[in-house]
Amino acid sequence: MIAKRLKARYRIIRLDLPGYGLSDGPTDESLKTLVPTDVPIALLDHLQVRKVTFAGVSSGGTMGMYMAARRPDMIERLILSNTPSDPVDTSHLKLSQGLKSAMDRAQQTGFRDQDFWTNFLTFFAGVPARISAQTQKEYYDFYRRAPEKNLIGLMARIGDGKQATIEMAKVRKPVLLLWGTADPLLPESALNAIGRYLSNAQISRVSMPQLRRTAGAGWSNAPRQSGHGCSRCRDGPSRRCKEPCLMPAQPFTTVSGRAAAMREDNFDTDIIFPARFLLITAKAGLGEYAFHDRRFASDGSKVEGYVLNDPPFADAPVIIAGANFGSGSSREQAVWALLGLGVRTVISSSFGEIFQSNCMRNGIVPIVLPKDRLPR
């Protein structure tokens, strides 16, 4: 609708992120050489577009911020709508009864039906009339296609927030923040936070208290440690939790038991906790989804011969892993899922940096040993 109104005066370029819409997802090979901003920058270069105003919602806005930091010669100004600047936390959400029932049903059946998407989109949009029947059908059709291994591999994400803070400080362009402050995930406190992080930009703000952002999938980042020590909160040290943490870090003293060997290198967080389960907001019970696509066949039966389906190793508290274990997405659910399985130690020659940090914060000990000293 917006593009239709603007295209008479402006050239509009809309980007379909790889893995969403009609695009195939990024391959393992491409993720070794590409970062998210490579794709839109290459597209604009191909079209010989030298200057743009970048408008983005949610993770689309994150992409715009990173592009403005990387290519200030290309990005003239930013329009950001309900864009995260801290890792997004979902544990505080007060879900509607309809969405709770739909999520329970999806958890039991492994399938998100049309009613699930109607409830999901209605909840996050706030006003049901904003989400057309066609949009609901498109969400349903998109998420019932064959799962993409690297669905969010080239989406711009906040991660643990450390690098994002550095990149946001590099932005020195005019920025218009358009904010629906009724957004349950990114309320007015998130608007204030992004204004602080964009400390060198020229900020203008428009707040719309009656609006939420359009529902989307760009809220799958893991929460980070805030100033008062709670990994669930994003409000910073000046505010306290409104409810107790559901899954505080479990203290580690000693561990004894069998060790399950998973020696495959580059075992990423999407293998540990597949992206399609990110809509499950409760931390308890995530163990049943750990390594789901390795443990279970498409018909739900257990994969014979997989180490965690072997009774002696089903409850193993130790994993001996290949190099770069926990690489990829920053999702903290991967660690929560391991805890749910009873894992307390992972031994590897190297870990994904954010995964390693999430382990230590949640009571799993990641032990780094030279490859030739790993237990055999």
List the helices and strands and how they pair.
Elements: H1 2-6, H2 28-33, H3 38-46, E1 52-57, H4 59-70, E2 75-81, H5 97-109, H6 114-125, H7 133-143, H8 162-170, E3 174-180, H9 188-197, E4 202-208, E5 259-262, H10 269-272, H11 292-295, E6 318-321, H12 333-341, E7 345-348, H13 353-362, E8 365-368
Parallel strand pairs: 1-2, 2-3, 3-4, 5-6, 6-7, 7-8
Helix pairs in contact: 4-8, 5-6, 6-7, 12-13
Description:
The protein is α/β, with parallel strands linked by helices and 376 residues long. It folds into three domains: 2-89 and 152-208, 3-Layer(aba) Sandwich (Rossmann fold); 97-143, no CATH class; 259-373, Aconitase, domain 4. Helix content is 30%, strand content 11%. The strands form two sheets. It has a four-stranded parallel β-sheet with strand order 1-2-3-4, covered by helices on one side. The chain has a four-stranded parallel β-sheet with strand order 5-6-7-8. Helix 4 (59-70) links the parallel strand 1 and strand 2. Helix 12 (333-341) packs across helix 13 (353-362). The protein is globular, with a radius of gyration of 21 Å. The termini are far apart. The model is unreliable at 215-248 (pLDDT under 50).
